[in-house]
Amino acid sequence: MKRKIIYILLPFLLVFSTSCEEEFLERTPTDAIAASDALSTAANMRLVINGLHRLLYAQSQVILPGGSSTFSGEHYWVSADDAIVGNVIHSAPGNGWLRAELQWNAHTLPTDGINFHRWYQRYHVIASASAIINKVIDEGIPVDDDMADILGQAYAYRAYAYYDLITHFAKGYLVGNPASDPGVPLQTGTEPPYTSGPRASVQEIYDLMNADIDESIGYFEMASPRCSGSAFCKSNLNINVAYGLKARIALSSGDWSTAASAAVMARDGYPLMDETDWKSGFNTLDLPEVIWGSNVISTETVFFRSYFYLISNTFNGSQNRGNPKIFNAEIYNMIPDTDYRKDVVLPLAPNTNPSANNDEGGSAETDPNYDDQARFIFVRDSIRTVYGTNDTGHNTHPYMHYKFKNKNPGSIDPDDIILMRSSEMYLIEAEAEAMQNNIAAAQDALQALVGERDSNYDASAFATQDQLIDEIKFQWYVELYGEGFGYENHIRWDEPLDLTNSGADLGYYGDGFMQDAPSVNDDWIWKIPQAEIDANPNLNEGNQN
Fold first, then answer.
1. 237, CA 20 to 30 Å: which among 46, 116, 162, 295?
2. Residue burial 99-122, b: 16+ Cβ < 10 Å; e: rest
3. Each residue of 356-398: pLDDT tens digit?
4. What is the pLDDT of residues 245-300, one digit of tens each?
5. d(Cα 407, Cα 411) in Å, to the nearest integer?
6. Is the pTM of this model over 0.70?
7. Rounded Cα gap, residues 80 and 382, in angstroms
8. End-to-end CA distance of the chain, in Å?
């Protein structure tokens, strides 16, 4: 499989280096481009980096040969990582999107598209980043301000892609034996021969990630600061993003001190949102605490493959109209009334959907929260009016959320995907400090974050390590619901999956309703794509997870 990935890297690079250089395209056939041509100038390398920004959210078939319109990068991966663990709960079948994922019938099958395309896309990121890195190193290209930024982004992208691969396709660092557990193939070469290697150990992949992210930070320190003032600027990686990735990598491997310090560096200059911003819909990178994300431009919308199609209850698609996404009911009822984040969940929204999983939808006769049909209809219509889905046929459901609202509710307009923000960094710091039993430091980080959300919050109430860890887990859910952290949190915490009392339906969720902890359950490890096993001479069925 990866032999093909590396082989098609050069046309992939060419897409971006020639889109603005028609003359180059006319005189050079696309099947005969050398890396030295595609990466011949800093400007061309910059176009490759811009191509990676786009690859994170584009429908993959418009960029990658063999890609699929179904898997539009982070639109899908962020949504899937919360769906798989029931962080975002589906109230009805809708049109079936993500059903196999939440029932654990996707990542557990080596032939499923979700495994193939996640692997395929991430190795394209790695190959493209490596091509830039190797070009500069091998040819001794001088590193000026512009080149330092390009290299900073390339190294950070490679670390990011490997972090995603090792998180999903290998046993968790903290629940296994990283020195001997098989990870993923370590591939940094971009010249013939294109044959991939065997699976490196988990530790070897972590060693590469740590080296890469330190290189990234070093180059960013040599570069001018990232531009500011637009969502496009935040689609570029910068030193804050690199520190954020360093914090994630360190947290996942138990390097608590590094995780805490890197998280503080990552959020520098990105103040927490106030209540107005927090309730505005999470639809733009312009929000002050957003450190990094995908700026989805209108001319490259993915329509019904977008993140907001899969997560928002205001997007106008069959997935949304027929399947309102709901917040975990048990966790909701633990949120204090003084916490404004509670306001974006509607626990008494009428259950208007006759196809709802709990068999309580359709009318006041079946919804236990209502005994008057006129009141039932009035509340439904009021919700549609307030949230801009009038005349769209959007169903409502108890505990449905309005955290994510597209800028034009009731439309299919594209919106940005937030990939990193300051709130995550406060939680990383708090967790890392708590794991070191630095009680006061963990309390301070929690207070800084949650005190902004809850006027009565008092972190000193959590006075022991166990109390702090429980509170931090709770805050990860409440603050970052729907932002894709559910899966990796379960791995790091070695936490079983149990959706009892959440609002999820056992009959609908099937195997995804309850799973043993990752340390004793290898179904948490995604299957290596069968196409990779078939094509890589260094892998066979015995190497499968």
1. 116
2. bbbbbbebbbbbebebbbbbbbbb
3. 999 999 999 999 999 999 999 999 999 999 999 988 889 999 9
4. 999 999 999 999 999 999 999 999 999 999 999 999 999 999 999 999 999 877 66
5. 9
6. yes
7. 31
8. 17
